[in-house]
Amino acid sequence: MSYQDQMRGIALELEEILNLDEIEAKVYLNLLRVGPVTASALAKELDIDRARMYRTVDKLVSRNIISITLSSPKLCMAVEPQEALKIALRKKEDEVNKIKKDGEAIIEKINSEISTKHGRNTPTFRVVQGRGNIYADIAQLIENSTDIVYISTTLEDISRMYHSIIPEKITISEKKGGKVRLLVEVDDPKLISFVKRFNASETKICKLPSKGRMIVQKDRQMIMSDLSGSKQSSSNSESDFSLCTNSSEMVSNIHRLCSLLWDTAQPLTTLDVKNYIEKK
């Protein structure tokens, strides 16, 4: 794998871990590489509009990911990666604690004031916005499953899912007798390690019918997204949308498609990937 490919991979992972967009990740990594530098010099180095660079720097400063010196001219400095991770963890912990506290209070109010009625057998349909929200839905589907769940998606999406709670939920599902089957398209044997680390119960490679994301559990639920605009969505997680439904007809159709893909796919080994690429 080339140095450029490695940097792109690190940038993608950094975006997900620190909740950065594509430009912010590039700025942070470049500051780590070159050391203190002016915002204007950074804009020229990364070929980014100067006004946009100043806005990006201000945003990263406000989040304590970079700092500005008091010298003249002012220089931008990146905080150490370990400190950036601590900052991200503290922010997430504060968010989780607030949701837990406020959630418990509102549930108590609802239970005491409202008698809820649920149409449990009524098919539901909803559109979910934001990669974090979509991954949370996928994680919940897997955690509650004691059956086979199919995940069919792109290599880039798998790389992002690896840094979510989804791998942990796979382990929980397996302990209850569940299984996650991953279908992914791989064009380079060197990328096998990135797929294996996701730790799906079983993994196969095949030519996917689209650049989309399909997660389905038989007779239960389906989550589907269009990832054809992957370059755009990679820089803005909020541009990621998914359709989530328990409609028996839609779930059945997608489950049959994933089952068919699985039956015709190849096991994930270096030799099989090489053979698969050569046949393409």
TrEMBL record:
* Pfam families xrefs: TrmB
- Coiled-coil annotated spans: none
SUPFAM superfamilies membership:
Winged helix' DNA-binding domain
* TM ranges: none
| InterPro entries, per the entry | TrmB-like (IPR051797), Tscrpt_reg_TrmB_N (IPR002831), WH-like_DNA-bd_sf (IPR036388), WH_DNA-bd_sf (IPR036390)
**Domain of life, source organism:** Archaea
Record domain Transcription regulator TrmB N-terminal: where: 14-81
Q: What is this protein called?
A: Sugar-specific transcriptional regulator TrmB
Q: What is the protein's species of origin?
A: Candidatus Nitrosarchaeum limnium BG20
